[in-house]
């Protein structure tokens, strides 16, 4: 864990000197220097004082880099195709267990000829167009602004029933990161 570098980066970004941190926390400058260079590991109580002086939550100091905010700019999104209809899938962002994507369904296109099932839970928001979604014995038509969700372990299919391209925002939760290629 690289807490010292995190503390230093926050301190510098906020234009706070080591002396100011020490004045507020009662810690010595030598100790703070050792903390920032990861030569010593402060106690949780000491970290809490440092976090207060930096005006950040203690939990933020304890996060690993991979658990912090991950940014994907619009022009940096990866795009893939999915299914026999070659649906365009824009991958928006993800965590270890959650993925968000925009899926474009050309008129008449669907997620497949037959319903399919996979690990996870899905939440859908129709951004544009008209779709029909079916899961097991349940089925409904959805228009722009409508949303629905389901456990993806039950066979399901989504189909564009409109005359224009439909765009659906899908958020997929899986227990593991093995659900990378699923819609």
From TrEMBL:
Keyword field: DNA-binding
SUPFAM superfamilies: lambda repressor-like DNA-binding domains (SSF47413), RmlC-like cupins (SSF51182)
GO molecular function per UniProt: DNA binding; DNA-binding transcription factor activity
GO cellular component: cytosol
Pfam entry (one): HTH_3
Species of the source: Paenibacillus pectinilyticus
Domain of life: Bacteria
UniProt xrefs under InterPro entries: Cro/C1-type_HTH, Cupin_2, Lambda_DNA-bd_dom_sf, RmlC-like_jellyroll, RmlC_Cupin_sf, TransReg_Diox_bact_type
Protein name: DNA-binding protein
Transmembrane regions: none
Domain HTH cro/C1-type residue range list: 7-61
């Amino acid at each position: 864990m690289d807490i010292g570098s995190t503390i230093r980066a926050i301190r510098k970004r906020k234009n706070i000197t080591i002396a100011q941190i020490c004045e507020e926390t009662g810690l010595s400058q030598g100790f703070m220097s050792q903390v920032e260079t990861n030569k010593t590991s402060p106690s949780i109580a000491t970290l809490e004082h440092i976090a207060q002086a930096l005006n950040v939550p203690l939990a933020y100091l304890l996060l690993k880099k991979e658990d912090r905010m991950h940014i994907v700019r619009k022009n940096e999104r990866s795009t893939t195709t999915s299914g026999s209809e070659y649906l365009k899938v824009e991958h928006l962002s993800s965590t270890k267990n959650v993925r968000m994507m925009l899926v474009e369904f050309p008129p008449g296109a669907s997620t497949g000829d037959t319903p399919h099932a996979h690990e996870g839970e899905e939440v859908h928001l129709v951004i544009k167009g008209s779709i029909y979604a079916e899961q097991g014995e349940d089925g409904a038509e959805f228009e722009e602004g409508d949303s629905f969700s389901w456990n993806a372990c039950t066979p399901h299919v989504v189909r564009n029933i409109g005359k224009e391209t439909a765009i659906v925002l899908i958020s997929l939760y899986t227990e593991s990161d093995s659900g990378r290629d699923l819609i």
